[in-house]
Amino acid sequence: MAVILFLSVLFCAAEAMDIQFDLQHPIGWTGSMFIGVTMDSYYLRDSSMSQLNINSQTLHNVARALSPGYLRVGGTTADSTVFNIPASAGKTTLTPQNWQKVDQLAKLAGWELIFDLNVNLRHNGAWDSTNARSLLRFSSDHGIKVHCFQLGNEVNWFNYNFHYNLPAQRLQQDYQILKSLLHEFPQYSASCIVGPDTTSLLNTQTRQYFEEFMKAEHSHPTLNNIGLHHYSLGNVAFNMNNMTDPQLMNTLHTELQMANSIKHQYAPHTPLWFTETAAGYTTDYINQYGDGFMWLDKLGLSAQNGFSTVIRQAFFYSLVDTHFNPLPDYYATLLHKRLIQGSVLKVTAGTWDTLRVYAHCANHAHNPSGAVTVIILNLQNHGASLTFSQFQGQQMQVYLLTPGDSHGLNSKTVALNGKRLGLNNGQLPPLNPTTHTGSVAMAARSFGFVVFPHANVALCKH
Ligand SMILES: *[C@@H]1O[C@H](CO)[C@@H](O)[C@H](O)[C@H]1NC(C)=O
């Protein structure tokens, strides 16, 4: 009761803003594999893998709920990881047992595995595929399913990580070697190849590197999907205020346009993916409520700009904690998966930089045919009241996400419609909306989803 009174006092001052959509002309498509998760190759080492309790029923429950999707295993450590041979100091050995454990994780979760191979194994200037062949032989013999392969990680930065340059053209030739290697194995000859996994295109040198790779790709195509990485905040020190900074969010739009323009020039039919992305590199902040703004905005902008998959860094530690308890972005991700699928709709009126709205067809698996789902991000320091005149008088199913405790944006828990979400004996809680008509009241600095189950939009029908 106290909460309701408080909210109504807060919102009576706010003027209602009418949000409108173009319900005729879709601007994109969000498929069932739109959101994936990563596991950093860093965790392939025995000391980490031995601690992963693959038999945990909680792990099954929370992972399975995010299916279907991709599990991408990669990262800086991929380029110093060898399979089944002793590694020198500072490097990692991926043991056959741990490799099978990764496969088990993917299978129990219902995730398609994407594996990043070590491009740093080199012979006479070219990629040495010997160790990869031994991994593929073992995998093939043991029924390990790998949906896609990658070669190297953020290779445009090799000078920084490994003290030498691997030119883009050379990397592309190495991808050709990978492609012929996969053809040696019936089980993997149809596996997809995703790369080159370069870093932010806002950096001129990176953009040139990516463009050179794509130019080479144009004459010798190897990629099924173009993979890029994105960290809005990179490795600079950041704070929670950055997470609600609309200017920073808008830089992603510039980056998405750059990616599209290079793709259209050299590989117009190859889908764009973010193969590794989060707000920043460290786990601080990205496991807290405030990160949800950056995350949902990225999902919205990427879908509008033709990206067909966005893979979140990282499942362990940013979506679930060490006991597999979901963190705030886990629930935002789960709701996105349940509520959104199909055409992306254009929002035509009622939004601005600090009141951001994304509109999609609702996922048929959980919502009526023709239903529409909107994502709302209120970055403002005051409440906002939203109306939707195109669906006037219709029932709305509202999922408002607010901090789960008094830590505000820094909260490591989240509340759905005022009720804090948590597991019950390892089971996910029901994610029930509140149902009403009229306007939607968004608290200051909060986000959520609204579904119009009876929107009856032709674009969103089966
Ligand atoms: C993050 O916010 C601080 C101020 O709180 C600002 O100085 C810094 O430039 C911001 N970082 C980015 C990457 O925008």
Q: What would your notes on this structure say?
A:
By secondary structure, this protein is an alpha/beta fold. It is built from twelve helices and 25 strands. Strands 2, 3, 16, 17, 18, 20, 21, 22, 23 and 25 form a ten-stranded antiparallel beta sheet that branches. Strands 4-5-8-11-12-13-14-15 form an eight-stranded parallel barrel, surrounded by five helices. α10 packs parallel to α12. The N terminus is likely disordered. The structure holds 2-acetamido-2-deoxy-beta-D-glucopyranose.
Helices and strands, with pairings:
Blueprint: H1 2-12, E1 16-18, E2 20-22, E3 28-30, E4 35-40, H2 46-49, H3 57-64, E5 69-74, E6 81-83, E7 92-94, H4 96-109, E8 111-117, E9 122-123, E10 126-127, H5 130-141, E11 148-151, H6 158-162, H7 168-183, E12 192-198, H8 204-219, E13 225-231, H9 246-266, E14 272-278, H10 291-304, E15 307-312, H11 315-319, H12 328-339, E16 340-349, E17 355-362, E18 372-378, E19 384-387, E20 396-403, E21 414-416, E22 419-420, E23 434-436, E24 440-442, E25 446-452
Parallel strand pairs: 1-19, 4-5, 4-15, 5-8, 6-7, 8-11, 11-12, 12-13, 13-14, 14-15
Antiparallel strand pairs: 2-16, 3-16, 9-10, 16-17, 17-18, 18-25, 19-24, 20-21, 20-23, 20-25, 21-22
Helix pairs in contact: 7-8, 8-9, 9-10, 10-12
This protein binds 2-acetamido-2-deoxy-beta-D-glucopyranose.
